[in-house]
Amino acid sequence: MDVTPTAVRQSSSPAEDEIFAALASPVRREVLRLLRERGPQSVQDLASCFSMARPSFSEHLRVLREAGLVSERRDGRRRLYRLEPVPLVRVRDWLDPYERFWRDRLSALRHLLDDTDTGTGGRPHDSGSGPRTDQDEEKP
């Protein structure tokens, strides 16, 4: 039984779902990071960075490939994997409204705090709990 709300099912495409599912795994995110930083890598080079069985690692590469996040090219007997950044544009587009939301919220908070400080002449509120000096004593 599908419990996904109708609005959610209509707002995301199967390709988006595959991309987000691929990015859900820390192993796959690390593979993408390695490819981003080091450029195209052979399966052997990538797999050497992880302590897992080769079939398990190959499954991670398959998921990334099917989501369009990596491409595979044969070089003789080796298979080289390369980062495909275009699908990540969908992730960025999905995140943009949330980034704007938080930027607006933090901006509103900053303005509120600035207004509060302005109300006290720009000085922090005195709680009266600091050490007293002779000058603080009342004079008769």
Q: What's the short version?
A:
The protein has 140 residues and is mainly α.
What general form does the structure show? elongated
Structural class: mainly alpha
Number of strands: 3
How much beta, percentage-wise?
5-15%
Main sheet characteristics: 3 strands, antiparallel
Order of helices and strands: HHHEHHEEH
Q: What integer is the average pLDDT?
A: 82
CATH architecture of the domain at 12-83: Orthogonal Bundle
Helix and strand arrangement:
Blueprint: H1 6-11, H2 14-23, H3 26-38, E1 41-42, H4 43-47, H5 54-66, E2 70-75, E3 78-83, H6 88-119
Antiparallel strand pairs: 1-3, 2-3
Description of the structure:
There is one protein chain. The chain is elongated and about 70 Å long. By secondary structure, the protein is mainly alpha-helical. A hairpin with a 2-residue loop joins strand 2 and strand 3. It has a three-stranded antiparallel β-sheet. The mean pLDDT is 82. The protein is 56% helix and 10% strand. It has a domain at 12-83: Orthogonal Bundle (Arc Repressor Mutant, subunit A). The longest helix is centred in the last third of the chain and has 32 residues, at 88-119.
